[in-house]
Specification:
CATH class of the largest domain: Mainly Beta
Number of domains: 2
Number of strands: 13
Low-confidence stretches: 1-16, 125-129
Structural class: alpha+beta
Order of helices and strands: HHHHHHHHHEHEEEEEEEEEEEHE
Strand content: 25-35%
Mean pLDDT: 82
CATH superfamily of the largest domain: monomeric porin ompg
Distance between the termini: 14 Å
Shape: elongated
Helix content: 10-25%
Length: about 400
Amino acid sequence: MIILINMVFVANLTGQSVWQAPDSANHLKNPLSVDDVTIARGQKIYQSLCQSCHGADGTGDPVMIKSLNPPPADLTSIQVQQQTDGAIFWKISEGRGLMASYKSMISEEDRWAVVNYIRSLKKESVKNKNEKNSNKANVNRQEVDAFGFSQLINAKTTYIRDGKGFGFSIQHRFGATKFDKGFVQNFMGLDLAANVRFSFEIPVSKRLMFEIGRTRFGKFYDLGGKYLFVKQTADGSIPLSIALYENVAITTENAPQYSNTATFENGYLFEYKFYHRLYYDTQIIVSRKFSDRFSAQIAGQLVWRNLTPYSIKPKEDSYVIAVPVSMRYKLGFKSAVDFEIMPNTQHRNFPISLGYEVASSGNHVFQITITNSDRILSQNLLFYPTIKYPEDGFMLGFNLIRYF
């Protein structure tokens, strides 16, 4: 999502017309006082909605400058700062082209608060050279996120939202399909049985978050938590982000039917207990943002289930060890390609997934996915057999993540 003012003050260089606010906008009066409170309020909104294009310091994000025409405006420039508060407010409200309209998305007071924050950016242009160098050093020490969302396709990332608001996600996987007559008859697998997971993320701080979710297949309810130990910095003094993720899930399906002679390993007769419904997922996740466009991560993962009577044949392991690898490459303003592969100790199960982000911003992402498993929760995904590319086909799906 782009926000803010005039992305076309450099338009004279690109051959496009300058974006002028109407005269009536110049007469609009800012109802908010310019103080630390309103500036801080505007800064939070800016960081959420504007920073992805206009950069942390207002001078423009390097990737967006290269990929957009016209590029995002330098909000510290004279061309922006000489405008009236009303003109800037009007442009935030109305939008133009790739610049979205925020009249119905954020309140009037919040838009005025953003104006106040933009005004504070001009102070950077009058600081002396030593202060500018100091500011650059501070920017270089800023923490960076390898991924802008807590979930890539199936894999968890090291990302944790700031400790305000909450996140909501939907993961959907359709039935297996091939490029044959069934592709049309079953509408690319959408007519077949589908799996879905809903979850809520509740950040406690920039280092700690919790989540709660429900998955259709397996009728799982799950509770998870993530703690970020260290976070990568722009200057490379901390080259990696490292997080611990833990999730416990309980299946509410009917108890499986086993033979009366089923036993535990010690010879005692098997009896289905509550704790047999519990499944666990533990991960250590390591990520790195290599450039403005490319990020990658690797994780060490242990998934454990409490079920498995030992006398049942063939004997199934109670655990799976996996080493998921995930990558993301930004194609432009709102698009990226995601790839995941999950080598693990289940020889019959090797999840491989590809995703395309058709719309992403600091507040939401929508992915179209292709995968070889309709399972979503790791406690089910890594135990359930995958299908084989290309003989068994593939499965389409989507992910939607929204932060509030």
